[in-house]
Design goal:
heterotrimer; A alpha/beta (261); B mainly alpha (300); C mainly alpha (289); B: 300 residues; mainly alpha; MetI-like fold; two-stranded antiparallel ribbon; 12 helices; 2 strands; globular; C: 289 residues; 2 domains; 0% strand
């Protein structure tokens, strides 16, 4: 077992309600720094809901209520008057469907830095180049930075979105089923990318593809909704090789061996 | 992480700005409410002198219209004849425009092949954009001589005005009816056709009844258009002050009378014209209430 | 084949014929109007002496240049006033308002505003801007009045354009740490811009054709081109009505014919422009360009 690295984020007894309906209950989970943590589980088990709590994107939905804590570097991000806008720069997100802005590739990546107030062109140019390189997209687009981001292929668009997130220099990157809308070849590229990014970023990836979780992650958490109408719960959590070869909980084992989900 | 501090400072400023922005946008949206309020208040305010001088029965329920330009106080300002003119022209217009408009909408939605349907729809959109003075002028150069030729009367009057109003109200009725028809779930049509009904049977037994509320609302809004139309009516109705029941005699509507007299009216006379505008407002409110009632039935 | 089925089929044929007739009548009506108006007035309308000439109060030979300028000036002024307000209101309705009583009430106000007769707006505009504010007859009074008249239509178009921006773009922006207002400003409005532009064209047609609301606010007859927004002006639609009703000018019929044809030309141009822009906007949206 790996020596425990410091936890970048800690989730403590998190419960979330959508307009009175309990979506997830009492989830406690560590997110170790500079590692990849995967969330797996059948559809509807609450993994996307959980990950969206980590950057408070759920706040955008009406009627959402949260109990418990999510701690980022010793601060609970759910304490009153916590700066959510700053939070989202430190904890970035890549969505399930690639969603580049209807702007040029350059403007997509420059969007984040401009928000922070970086205006000088040389500075922006270098940030854009660096971010696209880190996202393994630079060589493919360097000649066409002014082209619309929406003309790229699905896999390229997703890498553009990754570059966009990287450009704000986050500390944590959340991936919400990032490859489910993309072809297998592009998926492989992104998985390789994630392995490279690990050196500098803490990552959490939600995936319904178990093989992907096994390939890519260091730690895995398994979530489940027992019965329809029940909230999602964290069933088991541990390091990836253990979870996949010798899980403790019977339900985890059933899911992994493909009995359901 | 060189960005963090910069980022946090800016974030705090921007977060506050959100609250002000929301307020500004809300004010913009409230202008609609403010406008209605002000319109009512101002029209009412300008009508008050006439209401005080002539009294409500004398103003709204009398056909005695005898303004005095030199001495406005001494005139009579009963608008009932013009209210009647408005009602007659609107009714006359609706008799033709409602079936024509709804029929055209059904044509577009159910009967016409794709291209033809598009042609008719574009035609209606274009018709909607034609200025009312142009339609009025068209009425003068074509309808008046036509009526004159066919009936021997002067040609000006309620018939001419109704025909002109048909042109003005038609696009409203057709467009809204077509929207209503389009919104009918296709399953209804399929169910009927699957039972062996002809297209016409499907239309009148299934589609029209299920679209009933929408079609009624379309007609009511068409009526609103007709009631409020000013220039086109004024050009062909003759602008005489008499009350009439004949479609071929010169008369006036509320709108046409305002426009004919406003230029020379002062004092109580002017105020009486504003009172006619008030009457128009009340008619509009009545229509709005009718629409709400019909909508509520649909929801229930 | 039973009697009933045969009757049913016959009724269907009759009904089909009837509907075709109704559909064709509406198109024929339009064609008829255009042909008549152009037939009588097109030569005048396209005559440079008419377009660029100064109007005559009594003699013949007058042109309509100040009227054309008035109309165009009015369009620009009205848009300057109504676009920001409509956009602001549309942003409120689309991005901020929760579904509920407040937004429902505002929508009710807008729908009601749209039902009121235009002459009521004209009288209101006169009472408020011309008399109470003491602006006297001028373009500004007309523009403010028309801005209110236009509000429901413009708002509906702009709001729809904003709503059509996919939510995923808003999410992406917020997840990068942008505030809501920044998201609206940098992502939503630019994304909706083609739709907003298209939505603006239709009211332009309305402004050009409007007469009842402007004769009491802008003016009816001027000899000179209006320069300041507070100058009296005479938009073409109002002037055509005035020429016809007063019939003072010796050649008023020619003026009315020409003016009507000119108005029709303007409306047609605006209409086709709107359709062209609308189509391009559709393509842009689908290709995500």
């Amino acid at each position: 077992m790996e020596t425990a690295t410091e936890n970048k984020m800690v989730i403590k007894d998190l419960t979330m309600y959508y307009s009175g309906f309990k979506a997830i209950e009492d989830v406690s989970l560590d997110v170790p720094g500079q590692r990849i943590t995967a969330l797996i589980g059948p559809s509807g088990c609450g993994k996307s809901t959980l990950v969206r709590c980590l950057n408070r994107m759920n706040d955008l939905i009406e009627g959402v209520r949260v109990e418990g804590e999510v701690v980022l570097d010793d601060e609970n991000i759910y304490r009153p008057s916590y700066d959510t806008i700053g939070l989202r720069r430190r904890v970035g997100m890549v969505f399930q469907r690639p969603n580049p802005f209807p702007k040029s590739i350059y403007e997509n990546v420059a969007y984040g830095p401009k928000l922070i107030g970086i205006k000088k062109k040389p500075e922006l140019d270098s940030i854009v180049e660096e971010s696209l390189k880190k996202a393994a997209l630079w060589n493919e687009v360097k000649a066409n930075l002014q082209e619309s981001g929406m003309r790229l292929s699905g896999g390229q668009q997703q890498r553009l979105c990754i570059a966009r997130v990287i450009a704000v220099q986050p500390e944590v990157i959340l991936f919400d089923e990032p490859c489910s809308a993309i072809d297998p070849v592009a998926t492989q590229l992104i998985e390789d990318l994630m392995a490279e990014l690990k050196a500098n970023y803490t990552m959490v990836i939600v995936t319904h593809n178990m093989q992907q979780a096994a390939r890519v992650s260091d730690f895995t958490a398994f979530m489940l909704v027992e019965e329809q109408g029940q909230p999602g719960k964290l069933i088991e959590y541990g390091d990836t090789s253990t979870i996949f070869t010798n899980p403790e909980d019977k339900r985890t084992e059933r899911y992994i061996t493909g009995r359901f989900g | 992480m060189g960005f963090s501090k910069q980022a946090t400072m800016r974030a705090i400023v921007l977060g506050d700005r959100d609250r002000y922005v929301r307020l500004v946008m809300f004010v913009c949206a409230s202008i609609s409410f403010l406008a209605i309020l002000l319109i009512f208040l101002f029209i009412l305010k300008e009508s008050l002198p006439a209401i005080r001088q002539v009294g409500i029965p004398g103003l709204f329920f009398s056909t005695n219209w005898n303004p005095n330009i030199a001495k406005p106080n001494a005139g009579h300002y009963g608008m009932l004849a013009f209210t009647w003119g408005t009602i007659m022209t609107t009714f006359g217009a609706m008799i033709i425009a409602a079936p024509l408009g709804i029929g055209a909408a059904i044509f577009i939605d159910q009967v016409a092949p794709e291209k033809m349907g598009r042609v008719v729809r574009r035609g209606i959109e274009l018709l909607a954009g034609i200025p009312s003075v142009v339609i009025g002028w068209f009425g003068i150069i074509l309808l008046i001589p036509l009526i004159n030729g066919l009936t021997g009367t002067a040609g000006y009057g309620v018939l001419a005005a109704s025909l002109v109003l048909v042109v003005m109200a038609l696009p409203t009725i057709t467009t809204l009816s077509a929207e209503t028809m389009k919104a009918i779930p296709i399953e209804l049509k399929e169910a009927s056709v699957a039972m062996g009904a002809t297209r016409w049977q499907t239309i009148y037994k299934v589609l029209v009844p299920s679209a009933r509320e929408g079609l009624i609302i379309a007609t009511i809004l068409g009526m609103g258009r007709a009631i409020g139309e000013t220039m086109a009516v004024q050009m062909v109705i003759g602008n005489a002050r008499q009350l009439t029941f004949s479609p071929f005699q010169r008369t006036s509507t509320l709108t046409s009378r305002i426009v004919t007299n406003m230029g020379e009216a002062t004092g109580v006379f002017r105020s009486a014209l504003f009172a006619q505008a008030l009457m128009l407002l009340l008619l509009s409110v009545f229509l709005i209430i009718c629409i709400r009632l019909v909508s509520r039935e649909r929801k229930a | 084949m039973s009697d009933r089925v045969r009757d049913g089929r016959r009724a269907d044929r009759v009904a089909t014929g009837l509907f075709w007739a109704l559909g064709l009548i509406t198109v024929a009506l339009l064609a008829f109007i255009i042909l008549e108006i152009f037939g009588r007035g097109l030569t005048t309308a396209l005559n440079p002496k008419f377009i660029f000439g100064k109007p005559e109060a009594i003699k013949n030979g007058g042109g309509v240049f100040p009227m054309i300028v008035s109309s165009l000036y009015l369009v620009v002024l009205t848009l300057i006033i109504s676009l920001p307000i409509s956009l602001g209101a549309a942003i409120y309705m689309s991005e901020y308002a929760k579904k509920g009583r407040v937004s429902g009430f505002i929508r009710f106000c807008l729908d009601s505003l749209a039902t009121l007769p235009s002459i009521v707006f004209g009288l209101f505009g006169m009472a408020l801007f011309v008399v109470y504010f003491r602006w006297s007859y001028c373009l500004m009074a007309g523009a403010c009045t028309l801005a209110i008249l236009d509000l429901p239509i413009l708002l509906r178009g702009t709001e729809e354009a904003l709503r059509l921006v996919p939510n995923s773009h808003r999410e992406a922006s917020m997840s990068l740490g942008a505030s809501k207002w920044t998201t609206i400003r940098q992502v939503v409005v630019p994304g909706a811009m083609p739709g907003i532009i298209t939505a603006t064209i239709l009211p332009i047609g309305r402004i050009v054709g409007e007469s009842a609301a402007i004769i009491y606010t802008t003016g009816l007859f001027v000899r000179n081109i209006p320069v300041s927004p507070f100058d009296t002006a005479a938009p073409l639609a109002g002037y055509v009505w005035y020429a016809q009703t007063e019939g003072i000018q010796a050649d008023y019929i020619k003026i009315v014919n020409g003016g009507a044809a000119l108005l029709l030309i303007m409306v047609l141009v605006i209409y086709f422009l709107a359709r062209y822009l609308g189509k391009r906007y559709q393509e842009k949206r689908l290709l995500g360009g």
